[in-house]
Amino acid sequence: MSYIVGLTGGIGSGKSTIADLFSALNVPVIDADIVARKVVEKGSPLLSEIVAHFGQNILTEAGELDRAALRKLVFNDDKQKHWLNDLLHPAIRTEMQHQLAVQTAPYVIWVVPLLIENNLVEMCDRVLVVDVSPSVQLARAAKRDNHSDELIQKIMATQVSREERLKSADDVIYNEANFSDNGAHLKQQVLTLHQLYLELAEEKCNERNN
């Protein structure tokens, strides 16, 4: 199994942007959100269960899951959120564990928004946090998802605080919008960590073989 770097951060922090930069360096990326979409794709048993529970209104015209509509439902109802999590989390975890197990690259980036909240840190060799201020999170997420500030704040409230997230970090990428030439700054941070993770992966491989 590859060395596992868990990549996490609050909503709107820029996890996908950072993951894409690692991917450009030919590092495998396993994204929990992509896995979550896979297990509820059109025609899947889990999607049928969700429709039976919530009704046809959570489907798009194409018959796929309307994730935005479902998000609004569950974030306004803790009981429904727990029902959905109990249904999906085991399937998502199983699929992620499979994808991690078959990796052969020196290291893999494992993107999990709720890495800390769902007690998955212990599955990682190292934790990388993408850090921004709560105000930047709110502005970015509201613009990206076209959600109200109120809904974004509710989502943020379900995640650990910035302080708690940073306590769990081995490494931090700062992704504030006020950096000059932010793209180059992010790339340099990723390149530096890329070299570090290659070295750490090699050390772990040598320890395992000795």
Automatic annotation (TrEMBL):
Class of enzymatic activity (EC top level): transferase
Principal location: cytoplasm
Record's keyword annotation contains Cytoplasm: yes
UniProt-recorded name of the protein: Dephospho-CoA kinase
Superkingdom of the source species: Bacteria
CDD domains xrefs: DPCK
The reaction(s) this protein catalyses: 3'-dephospho-CoA + ATP = ADP + CoA + H(+)
GO MF annotations in UniProt: ATP binding; dephospho-CoA kinase activity
Gene3D superfamilies assigned to the protein according to its UniProt record, in alphabetical order: P-loop containing nucleotide triphosphate hydrolases
One annotated GO biological process: coenzyme A biosynthetic process
Name of the gene: coaE
Amino-acid positions noted as binding ATP in the UniProt annotation, renumbered to this chain: 12-17
Claim: Lipid metabolism is one of the keywords in the record: no
Higher taxonomy: Bacteria, Pseudomonadati, Pseudomonadota, Gammaproteobacteria, Pasteurellales
Family designation: Belongs to the CoaE family.
Pfam families the record matches: CoaE
